[in-house]
Design goal:
Length: about 200
């Protein structure tokens, strides 16, 4: 059984997505371990709101390789969507997945076997149209629940629309009063495995 560890940089959305992706690994028979427990695979979920976040990603990759030099290192998240070519230049990175691909990484990376060159699975952000309901569970003191992907605004100072795209319209979304109770009920219906943890 391969061991996988996760490291999350950035916002609460990233924490909810990392937790959901970790559960996908566990459902497929991988053993989730702490970052320092010499995993076979590292998944680093990145941020790119500031230049500091990009530098932090490089630092985390170096730390991962000190812990487990032969591990498979995969980068996902906003930094991966915005600058995949820059990331594959980081020594030790094996794969980079964009926003449209990150929830399919287990299938796309086929056993996490190292190749001679890093692999990039990256689509233009316009192709990131699917909404993946995500929530954190047992990772932190509080549970984080993703309520939307993307942003429909284009502020000059912000990279979020470039990294996450426009907010996709979910076909099952119905107009409601917007009350917290309505939102909670709608989320329970939209998250296929939410009921197991609710």
């Amino acid at each position: 059984m391969k061991k996988v560890a996760f490291y999350t940089l950035g916002c609460k959305l990233n924490y909810s997505e990392t937790s959901t992706i970790a559960r996908l690994f566990e459902q497929r028979g991988y053993q989730r371990v702490d970052f320092a427990d010499t995993p076979d695979i590292f998944i680093i979920n990145t941020c790119s709101v500031t230049d500091n976040a990009d530098k932090k990603c490089r630092k985390i990759v170096k730390e991962a390789l000190k812990i487990s030099p032969d591990a498979y290192v995969t980068i996902i998240g906003c930094y991966a969507q915005l600058k995949p070519q820059e990331i594959v230049e980081i020594p030790g990175v094996d794969a980079v997945l964009g926003a449209a691909e990150k929830f399919r990484l287990i299938d796309l990376l086929d056993g996490f076997e190292k190749k001679t060159q890093p692999v990039i699975h990256h689509s233009p952000i316009i192709e990131a149209k699917d909404y993946y309901c995500s929530f954190s569970q047992n990772d932190r003191t509080r549970t984080f629940l993703k309520v939307q992907d993307g942003c429909n605004y284009s502020c000059a100072f912000c990279t979020i629309p470039l990294a996450t795209g426009r907010q996709p319209q979910r076909p099952d979304r119905k107009r409601s009063s917007g009350s917290p109770a309505d939102s909670s009920e709608r989320c329970k219906r939209n998250c296929a495995d939410w009921r197991k943890y609710w």
